Amino acid sequence: QVQLVESGGGLVQPGGSLRLSCAASGSAFSFYSFYVTGWYRQAPGKQRELVATITNGGITNYADSVRGRFTISRDNAENTVYLQMNSLKPEDTAVYYCNARDPRNALTYWGTGTLVTVSS
User: Fold this and answer.
1) In degrees to the nearest 10, what's the CA dihedral of 110, 104, 25, 52?
2) Alpha-carbon gap, residue 112 to 97, rounded angstroms
């Protein structure tokens, strides 16, 4: 089984920055098999929504609400995906979840989330 563990969340003032990390671990796996990895978030009282995704080839996709402010990256050698969040807004407050997809084995993994709170 593969586990995804998010870190880097916390309290930040509007306009500030945070860098989230998602580290994958397991008994036996290849991070490269996760063709698509990404970040989702869920704000209080709202449904979980896509934030950003990145493929092994480096193709990225962003929600309109974060495009230009957030940057997703991936380090296959370190089994880690990152989310650099700049110019944070109160509307970005949410629990952020890491996601990894292994389409060859029809598997999808989720982390348990890290809380990001943007408030003055």
Assistant:
1) -40
2) 6
**Angstrom distance (rounded) from CA 51 to CA 65:** 8
Confidence tier at 34 by pLDDT (50, 70, 90): confident
Give one DSSP letter per residue of 45-104, joined into a string.
TS--EEEEEEETT--EEE-TTTBTTEEEEEEGGGTEEEEEE-S--GGG-EEEEEEEEEGG
Residue-averaged pLDDT of the chain: 94
**What is the C-alpha to C-alpha distance for residues 53 and 40, in angstroms, rounded to an integer?**
9
